[in-house]
Amino acid sequence: MIHTKKVCSAWIMLMGLIVFSAGNMTAQESVKKEIVISPSLKWSERMALSIIKRDPKLWQVDNNEKPKWDYKLGLVAMSFKQLYKKTNNSVYENYVKEYGETVINSSGEIMNYKLEDYNIDYVNAGKILFDLYKNTKDNRYLVAMQTLRKQLETHPRTNSGGFWHKKIYPNQMWLDGLYMGTPFYARYTAEFDKGKDFDDIAKQFEQIHLHTIDKKTGLLFHAWDESKQMPWANRETGTSPNFWSRSIGWYMMALVDVLDYMPKDHPKRKELVQYLSEISTAVAKYQDISGLWFQVTDSATKEGNYLEASGSEMFIYAFAKGAKKGYLPSSYKKLAEKGFDGLINKLVTVDPDGEIHITQVCASAGLGGNPYRDGSYEYYIKEKIKIDNSHGLGPFILAAIELDK
């Protein structure tokens, strides 16, 4: 414990001394040399310090050359927010705060954001704004939150009331979109709108559950096209053809995070807990002996499939949090622990200086677009696999925090 405090104190001093700009490699190298990543720290902090060591500015994660408002960076930022709440170490808070000050100007305008794009991904990073506003009282963060809430007011919807994933993907709901939009929406309605929109938030899950669930496996297909016109869509159901672990992981994380804000007496709460129970039961059946899950969830033995980090981490997080909150039986914590042990044994590497890396992260996957993505098994297994991709960094920290590993 004393050692941990020393590390934290050194870090606070270090971050106060170092002034870094994108072009100042000398300062960046100084950051890398000064960081001490002790193996006595929890895995969550070891990963966070490794990230800062590689990327002194949060926007640099994923080798970005300039700052941007981005759902993936928002995912990493949220994990640092949670780590700050766990440790009270201002290093993690300042890492996020500096990002917020960089991508939101003094008037509250969000960098590279266009409301009229109606991209649900843009909402995700808005989750960091609540605490930034609460802690700094800086009005820029309130204005930015209001802008994102305004997007949801006019965001295009399916005829049945579900948010389109993006304007460029008309009539489509993707599992990913539930995590991008609903936790922000839930916290906003809880803190600013007296909870008036929880029915609408529940509707998003209801639509996904109704239209993407596979009755045979209990798993959810990656996406649904209400029009059934997309080449990837099943002509009868409108669903995409395969189960992608990370997309199911997005959905499960959305459920456990939205439940943080939904009142215990709300009539839709039990419904969401039931959805979590059902998908957790289905996902648990496909956990590999290693504790991990495959890129294409139900196809473990199929040639080319691989144990994928980000989806596995999201399942671990949802299982651990769900068990801790009482939404799931306590047995799911054991499944989560088995999964996390699998991550450490199979997918985490440790450098001689203590820096850690997460391997086998699917860089990106989607449907449609240009070049066209057909949602086939071959498509999912052939997408790029990366080390230390942001999709694998944020959920690793979140899962580690929940398990206190």
Automatic annotation (TrEMBL):
<keyword id="KW-0732">Signal</keyword>
<protein>
    <submittedName>
        <fullName>Glycoside hydrolase family 88 protein</fullName>
    </submittedName>
</protein>
<dbReference type="InterPro" id="IPR010905">
    <property type="entry name" value="Glyco_hydro_88"/>
</dbReference>
<dbReference type="InterPro" id="IPR008928">
    <property type="entry name" value="6-hairpin_glycosidase_sf"/>
</dbReference>
<dbReference type="Pfam" id="PF07470">
    <property type="entry name" value="Glyco_hydro_88"/>
</dbReference>
<keyword id="KW-0378">Hydrolase</keyword>
<dbReference type="InterPro" id="IPR052043">
    <property type="entry name" value="PolySaccharide_Degr_Enz"/>
</dbReference>
<dbReference type="InterPro" id="IPR012341">
    <property type="entry name" value="6hp_glycosidase-like_sf"/>
</dbReference>
<dbReference type="GO" id="GO:0016787">
    <property type="term" value="F:hydrolase activity"/>
</dbReference>
<feature type="signal peptide">
    <location>
        <begin position="1"/>
        <end position="21"/>
    </location>
</feature>
